[in-house]
Specification:
The complex is a heterodimer of chains A (240) and B (216). Chain A is an alpha/beta fold and 240 residues long. Chain A has nine helices and ten strands. In chain A, the strands form two sheets. A six-stranded mixed beta sheet of chain A has the order 6-7-8-3-9-10, sandwiched between helices. In chain A, strands 2-1-4-5 form a four-stranded antiparallel beta sheet, with helices on one face. In chain A, helix 3 packs parallel to helix 5. Chain B has eight helices and no strands. In chain B, helix 5 crosses helix 6. Chain B starts with 7 loop residues before the first helix and ends with a helix. Classes of the chains: A alpha/beta (240), B mainly alpha (216). The interface between A and B is medium-sized, with 30 and 22 residues. The complex binds adenosine-5'-triphosphate and magnesium ion. The site of magnesium ion (MG) has 4 residues of chain A, from helix 1.
């Protein structure tokens, strides 16, 4: 369970998250939508401790992320994250991309790591690209590799930050399909996305962020068909 | 027919000078690169109150002419009674001088690695050190290599200045021969050829690696 309690986050004088509270239950898929600069990416970064916060707290299975004694490297193994772009380690083959953390972080042997990596890469349809370098992959394949790399660590949570928005339209589907599969398998996910149709189909709940505040949260039917907040309405009118 | 007073012994003398040039270049690059990596990493990753004073000191090494640094360092070590040989002084000064340039190259290389790529590494549970070792340095290396090769070739030519401390390196040895046999064009051509033969493999290696890494 991910518990976000009254989180405040600023970059210098710029307030980016303003008293954000929300809970993601195990097995749940939460989508986050909202305009550019509303703090969506920053929230994900705070959840796995890549960014400090100035107020409130975030608990992962009861462990406070920003508490002094927390072993962030251990915590992060449980939280996979995939970014919009620049995920790949370009100097490593697809297989090495996936095995690196298995070997260095989880201290698995080479053959053990490769077994896991091959299984995950096949799962996302990259079983025939093991010795390819990321630069030779399409954008969609790179994103699927990043997903496989995160999954190889057997995380309990997956965070996705607009993983399809840098892709050519014809490549979006394959990546969304991979995520859909993951949701069906019961993975707990937070998905920041501009793909409203996807958010509607896959999410248990959808949260709308506006200027650092969580404006509204609810089941997709509420957010998309009968939003309570005027700002949500306005935002959705613009993206449709 | 072309005739020359240049003897076999003179060639040996020139090659000895070239050996000195190579050796000083080697130590300057070894020490300079090692320090450059440390300084550059500090500059790219440490907070400003650490990085700024360091940058200031390195700027001094970069902006004061090398010749002045050599002569001052040699004089000061004598006054301080350190009893360092001119060769050691030359290597140390050149290494510091090189490190100031190298640190800029390293800093640029580290900065060129996308933040997101580093976050991807950290988000997999890799430590800061693992991220630097496995991701940042290998990627930065590709960016740094051309400038580093250029630096090496530059330092090799700069070593000619150590002759002011009484060291006979390649350029000085060719001058000595010129003074004796009075065939400046021929002797200097040979010295130039030797410089070229020493530089060529380094720039070739650089180009080879660049090509190898290019299509990654
Ligand atoms: N490292 C940083 N330093 C300073 N300001 C930052 C930093 N990262 C983000 N910001 C600012 O914080 C605000 C929120 O950024 P964030 O990336 O979280 O928005 P977002 O909702 O993900 O937007 P988008 O949809 O464009 O990705 C923006 O105004 C952004 O400029
Ligand atoms: Mg974002």
């Amino acid at each position: 369970m991910i518990e976000i309690e009254h989180v405040h986050k600023s970059f210098g004088s710029l307030k980016v998250l303003d008293d954000v509270s929300l809970t993601v239950n195990t097995g749940e898929v939460l989508s986050i939508i909202g305009g550019s600069g509303s703090g969506k990416s920053t929230l994900l970064m705070c959840i796995n401790g890549l960014e400090p916060i100035q107020g409130g707290r975030i608990l992962i299975d009861g462990t406070e992320v920003h508490a002094k004694g927390t072993d962030l490297n251990a915590l992060r193994r449980n939280i996979g994250i995939v970014f919009q772009q620049w995920n790949a380690f370009p100097h490593l083959t697809v297989l090495e991309n996936v095995t690196l953390a298995l070997r260095k972080v989880l201290k698995k042997s080479r053959s053990e790591a490769e077994d896991i990596a091959v299984k995950q890469l096949k799962h996302v349809g990259l079983g025939d690209k093991l010795t390819t370098y990321p630069g030779k992959l399409s954008g969609g394949q790179q994103q699927r590799m990043a997903i496989a790399r995160a999954l190889a660590m057997s995380p309990r949570y997956m965070l996705f930050d607009e993983v399809t928005s840098a892709l050519d339209p014809q490549l979006v589907g394959e990546v969304l399909d991979t995520m859909r599969l993951l949701a069906e398998e019961g993975m707990t996910m937070i998905v920041v996305t501009h793909e409203m149709q996807f958010a509607r189909e896959v999410s248990d709940r959808v949260a709308f962020f506006n200027q650092g505040k969580m404006e509204e949260i609810g089941p997709p039917e509420q957010i998309f068909d009968a939003p309570h907040s005027d700002n949500t309405k306005k935002f959705l009118a613009n993206v449709r | 027919m072309f005739e020359t007073a240049l003897s076999f012994n003179d060639i040996i003398f020139l090659l000895k000078g070239a050996g000195v040039t190579l050796l000083v270049t080697f130590w300057a690059m070894a020490g300079g690169t090692l320090m450059g990596v440390v300084f550059g990493t500090i500059r790219a990753t440490a907070p400003r109150w650490v990085g700024w004073p360091l940058a200031f000191v390195l700027d001094i090494f970069r902006s004061v002419p090398l010749l002045i640094q050599l002569i001052l360092a040699n004089a000061f070590q004598a006054i301080a009674g350190l009893q360092m040989s001119a060769f050691v002084v030359s290597c140390v000064v050149l290494a510091l001088y090189t490190s100031s340039y190298c640190s800029e190259i390293v800093r640029g290389g580290i900065d060129a690695v996308p933040v997101t790529t580093r976050r991807a590494a950290r988000s997999l549970g890799m430590t800061w050190g693992q991220d630097m070792r496995e991701i940042v340095f290998p990627l930065a290396l590709r960016v740094m290599l051309p400038s580093w090769i250029g630096l090496t070739l530059g330092v090799m030519k700069d070593t000619a200045l150590i002759t002011w401390l009484g060291i006979i390196e390649l350029l000085r040895s060719s001058q000595i021969i010129v003074t004796r046999i009075q065939e400046p064009l021929f002797v200097l051509s040979i010295a130039g050829l030797i410089y070229f033969l020493m530089s060529f493999p380094i720039s070739r290696l650089g180009r080879h690696l660049e090509k190898k890494w290019q299509d990654l």
